[in-house]
Amino acid sequence: MAIDLDKINERASARRPSELAKSSASKVKLDDGDLSNRVPIKRLPSEILAKIFLSTPPDYVYDRWATFPAHKAVLPRISFHQGSSADPMTLAQVCHQWRDVALSTPLLWSSINILCSDKRQQVPLLEAWLERSSDCPLSIRFVESVAGSAAHDEKFDFPQSPFTADIMSLLVAQAHRWKEIDFSFSRQISPVLSNIALTSFPILETASIVSRQATDHTFGGVAPLKKVWQAIHSSPSFCSGRWEMEYLEENLKDIPWGQLTAIDVTMPLDSLFRILPLCPNLVELRYTDPLYAYNPTTLSSDSRPLCEDKPEEEIVMPKLRRLSLRMDQPPHTILDRLTLPKLSSYNIQLYTDNVERPHGTSLLDLLDRSQCRLEHFRYDDPEDDAEAAVVTILSSPHFSSLMELDLKPRTTDLLIDLLHRTKSQNILPRLERLFLGPCSTRSGALSGMVLSRQSVTDEFASLGFVEVGRWDRHPQDLECLQILSGEGVLMVI
Questions:
Q1: CA–CA dist 30, 96 (Å, integer)
Q2: Does the N-terminal or the C-terminal CB of the chain have fewer CB atoms within 10 Å?
Q3: Residue 154 falls in which region: left (phi positive, over 0), alpha (psi -120 to 50) or beta
Q4: What is the value of pTM for the model shown?
Q5: Are 106 and 136 in contact (CB under 8 A)?
Q6: How many angstroms separate the CA atoms of 213 and 146, rounded?
Q7: 193 touches 224 (CB < 8 A)
Q8: Distance separating alpha carbons of residues 364 and 397, to the nearest angstrom
Q9: DSSP string for residues in 163-178
Q10: Residue-wise DSSP of 203-237
Q11: Tens digits of per-residue pLDDT, 344-387?
């Protein structure tokens, strides 16, 4: 029904002055006292408000494998939360009701992200967070700050924070509540962890420990790590781990590979091929080539990856769904050995590729051999011809179920034209989320591609999220993308 503004104005003008004065006085009284109670969110029950707080995602989700944009994110220094959008310390400052709800919701305080620096107030702040988390299982990420470190003899000597021991003592006292831990120390693990008992972790599921952040720094030794990992491995719930290569080299037999569902390892290829048959329940594998992460001069001859061309026995991983690789040597050295019938997510970061056996060829052979279809694909290759390789890969029918595409190489009209949906061309029909690195295209190409993917049918999905790094910002593209953003397409450009 249309609203007649003229009639509304006539009715307002016909009101007597005394009525207007009375109405104004009532409004002033309402503004002074009860207006805040008329705001809808103020009428929500505390239980519903707490669920909203818990459902609000952080500003970013830390992922050590991400290259853009998550690599820019840093841990906050004045709080232990991942981001401001759902920080309980921020929520508690909005009003009395929100403060009461935040302080009485222990789960809000159970995810703790600590950037350990020289700020003394972190210790009492951590005490408050642990107290407010009550008996909830804890997810803890600890990073020892290396700010202010200086180069010496072409190596970085990262000092250990004087407050690390105090923070670790508080955390160790709550070890029975640890569910997920990710500890990264500057030079060596804290001696406090050496007091951990074998039965300290009844509910621990995920653990990552880095005893030194600089891989060109002398390793502090396996002995301190061995006792800590022995206690972690004794947890009946332990199913996901990330170990340093030096520890893995000497303790492969001490790790309960059979119960693990996710591993993040840096090791020589021959060691990787020895442990994979021991992991029948593995769902996620993250592998880093030692030469990708370490200074070659610090690697022993046993740690350096072997690349042999002789045929090897095929390894079938029946439950593996997510595979992430960071490779210095050609990826076919791994891909040609695997059969992964459940694979749905693939992430590759290349340092170099092999001319005789290109990555695209070995990947498509793996997908064909495994008879699987990818839903998530992330590709990072610094080579100049990387876009051409991507075009070849995406044209395969094994990508017809792809829902998320994340490409770091420079994008031009070659790829954008391929992604443009037409009656005769519909590559990646199920694509919903697209991440692109640097993008250089003709005017209208980028927005035209996004616009062509807005129709939804039983066969075609709508492209609902687009993120682009550097791009040409053609006026035509900018105008069209702004319109699409107003219609519900999420844009980060």
A1: 20
A2: N
A3: left
A4: 0.82
A5: yes
A6: 9
A7: yes
A8: 10
A9: THHHHHHHHHTTGGGE
A10: S--EEEEES-S-TTSPP--SHHHHHHHHHHHT-TT
A11: 999 999 876 565 678 899 999 999 999 999 999 999 988 878 99
| Interval 151-178: pLDDT, tens | 333 444 555 677 888 999 999 999 999 9
**The two structure tokens encoding residue 276:** 């994979």
Extract the tokens encoding 247. Answer: 């520890």
| Contact (Cβ atoms closer than 8 angstroms) between residue 70 and residue 62 | yes
Neighbours of 33 (CB within 10 A): 9
Which tokens belong to 322? 């997510």
Are the beta carbons of 455 and 445 closer than 8 angstroms? Answer: no
Cβ contact 126:80 at 8 Å: yes
| Orientation angle between helical segments 122-132 and 164-172, nearest 10 degrees | 10
Residue found under tokens 């969110």: 41
* Residue 367: its H or E element: helix 359-370
Which DSSP symbol is given to 305?
Answer: P
CA distances from 72 to 60, 61, 63, 66, 67 (A): 10, 11, 11, 10, 9
Two structure tokens written together for 277? 């048959």
Q: Residue 386 CB: number of other CB atoms within 10 A?
A: 21
What span, in angstroms and rounded, lies between the C-alpha atoms of 118 and 111?
Answer: 22
Can you tell me which residue has the tokens 């999905």? Answer: 461
Task: Note the Cα 95 to chain centre separation in Å.
Answer: 32
Sequence-distant (≥ 6) Cβ neighbours of residue 181 within 8 angstroms: 139, 140, 141, 142, 204, 206, 207, 208, 209
- Dump pLDDT digits (tens) for 192-224: 888 888 888 999 999 999 887 654 445 555 677
Q: Which tokens hold the place of 279?
A: 């992991």
Q: Is 150 helix (H, G, I), strand (E, B) or coil?
A: coil
DSSP E strands, 442-481: 465-468
User: How far apart (Å, rounded) are the C-alpha atoms in residues 470 and 382?
Assistant: 16
Question: In terms of C-beta density within 10 A (0-12 exposed, 13-18 middle, 19 or more buried), how is residue 218 classed?
Answer: exposed
Sole residue written with tokens 């029946």: 318
DSSP 35-66: HHHHSGGGGS-HHHHHHHHHHSPPS----TT-
Question: How far is 66 from 273, CA to CA, in rounded Å?
Answer: 25
Q: How far apart are CA 201 and CA 398, in angstroms?
A: 42
Query: If you write DSSP's letter for every residue of 108-125 in order, what string do you get?
Result: GGSEEEEEE-S-TTHHHH
pLDDT digits (tens, 9 = 90+) for 43-58: 888 899 899 888 876 6
Tokens 């791009």 map to which residue?
471
Tokens of 394: 């995406």
Instruction: Compute the distance between CA of residue 150 and CA of residue 148 in angstroms, rounded to an integer.
Output: 6
CB 302 within 8 A of CB 249: yes
Of 318, 321, 314, whose CA–CA distance to 337 is shortest? 314
